[in-house]
Design a protein that fits this description.
mainly alpha; 2 domains; 20 helices
Length: about 500
Amino acid sequence: MHKEKAVKSIGIVNIGITGSRISGYIRDMSIASSFGANFITDAFFVAFTIPNMLRQLLGEGALSVAFIPIFTRYFGKDKKEAWRLGSIVVNLLFVISSLIAILGIIFSPIIIKIIAPGFKGEEAYPLAVKLTRIMFPFVILISLSALIMGILNSCRHFFLPAIAPILLNLGMIASIYLLCPAFTQPIIGLAIGVLIGGFGYLIIQIPGLIKHKMRYQLTFDLSHPGLREISHLFIPAILGLAASQMILIFIGRILASYLVVGSVSFLYFANRLIQLPTSLFGVAIATVSFPSISEYAAINQPHKVKDTFLYSLKMVIFTTIPVTIGLIILGKPIIQVLFQRGEFSEASVQDTYSCLFYYSFGLIGYSSLKVIIRTFYALKDAITPLKVGLLIILVNVILSLILMRPLEASGLALATSISSLLNVSILLIILEKRIGHMVSKEMLIFFLRVLFAAGIMGLICLFLITKLQITLILRVSITIIAGIISLFFISRFLHIEEANLILKVLKPGYK
């Protein structure tokens, strides 16, 4: 994988992700302002857990990691057969996701009792059931969208899949102001907006298939060897990714339902802030590197697998350590700028920041996992991440039960961070045995250089955010910009290659 080309591709993905996250924050600002943090938002976020978890699990996870290595191999040998395989998976996925949606609608009361057993009384529980039933057809839309995303990424087409979530957010934002006022329970309009946005999520990617001349066929060849390979990877992949990422959040939602009212919402808003850097760096880097790692693994070039993986990991380290320090220092004013209005009070800001503070320590873990797990799947090993993930679930439950009483919702965030870091550590030790020695003097020096540069950046940010006597939004904006500039200036002085590559790609006229 050519480093400059990789950085450019990561940049392209980040443009889409940035737009998606900005629209996502506007969405969350609108939700916070219109509904606050109470039993109504608790009910919505619990109901939204299933479709949102499936979006992340499929769109950023299992379906892509199972599909891309196989489709990439077919596409490199016989494009016609690759498109036939793609059509088979599309048709089968539509049938399966439709059945899941029907079952989800029927069994919504049981699902809510499982994911929010702490909901009591006549308010949150029935509302969560109603919202879940409305949003469950989103499963069909997101399943097909995730598959198309995998096809386009295999063709090294990254932009349309990256901006697709913007349509989901726009659908929800529009519903808050156009649909919600029409309902006696306004939050129902927001649930309908999820479906509208999901349809846009799917449609926006269709031009990419047309550009790459996909030849769709209405076929259900269940005996196709490529389909069998995908299914063998997909089942352990979805269980492994769920165990290592989604279930950690899922467990947090369940336990938070037993805490004070608003705890589910505090965790949700804090997690939303963590998702931006996780997507910008972890997801973007993994998205760009995964097709290359899969290709090198398919043609049996382990040294290139290792080189691509290590470069991806260094990019994650260079980007997430400074962001971790930045969120610890600027987290509270950022939350104030984004959410403190209407029904979202100062107390809600403090509780959300407390969750964000503890989530921040796991940022390098969340982002690294995106790259590490995909490397295992490129090596056709879906079992190892699953086994480690199951162990991490147990660790997370124990830590959550220990920490939730003294720290409330913040304890659940801390348990998630510790679990993610442990997950990364175990998987790295195992992966090192597969692709060769990775912990080197060079890597240690690189880590210390990044940590030093990020530390100086943090001191500059702390000085500016406390000393500038201007409006909060300007103070936050100027501090962030100054922090980024100082980080790259110090990184260049310390000869951190990743900073130089990013600056080179950003130069006018670079192609």
